[in-house]
């Protein structure tokens, strides 16, 4: 149940950011749900491999290269989901930062409701 709620909250965040950022396009809410699912799968499978392969660069940049990896994950989701389009790397980077921020807010509200 908690996983489904996290996917739906991520989809809401994707729709909100697509309406705010002109470089991110989501066709409908179903596409946003697929984006949330694909992002979750890519973060579990591809992201650890990218981190391992780019470990020297990540250490050299004191972890800032992880932002680039997150943007790459967003661009890959744009490639895999038909109704989701990212106009470029910088939009993916900004989307990644804002999505992480919104997810932290939404998930903290989820934990707060669990305690009550």
What keywords describe this structure?
transmembrane helix, mainly alpha, about 120 residues, two-stranded antiparallel sheet, about 80% helix, 5 helices, 2 strands, transmembrane, about 5% strand, globular
Global mean pLDDT = 93
Helix percentage: over 70%
Looking across the biggest beta sheet, what order are the strands in? 1-2
What is the domain total for the residues?
1
Shape: globular
N-to-C SSE string, H for helix and E for strand: HEHHHEH
Number of strands: 2
Residue stretches low in confidence (pLDDT < 50, at least 5 long) are none
Q: C-alpha Rg, in Å?
A: 14 Å
Count of DSSP helices?
5
Strand content: 5-15%
Structural class: mainly alpha
- Major sheet characteristics: 2 strands, antiparallel
N-end to C-end Cα span: 17 Å
């Amino acid at each position: 149940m908690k996983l489904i709620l996290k996917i739906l909250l991520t989809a809401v965040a994707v729709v909100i950011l697509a309406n705010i950022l002109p470089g991110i396009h989501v066709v409908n809410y179903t596409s946003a749900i697929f984006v949330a699912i694909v992002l979750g799968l890519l973060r579990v499978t591809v992201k650890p491999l990218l981190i391992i392969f780019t470990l020297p660069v990540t250490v050299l940049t004191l972890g800032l290269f992880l932002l680039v990896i997150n943007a790459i994950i967003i661009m890959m989701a744009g490639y895999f989901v038909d109704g989701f389009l990212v106009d470029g790397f910088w939009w993916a980077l900004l989307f990644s930062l804002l999505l992480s921020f919104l997810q932290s807010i939404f998930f903290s509200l989820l934990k707060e409701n669990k305690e009550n």
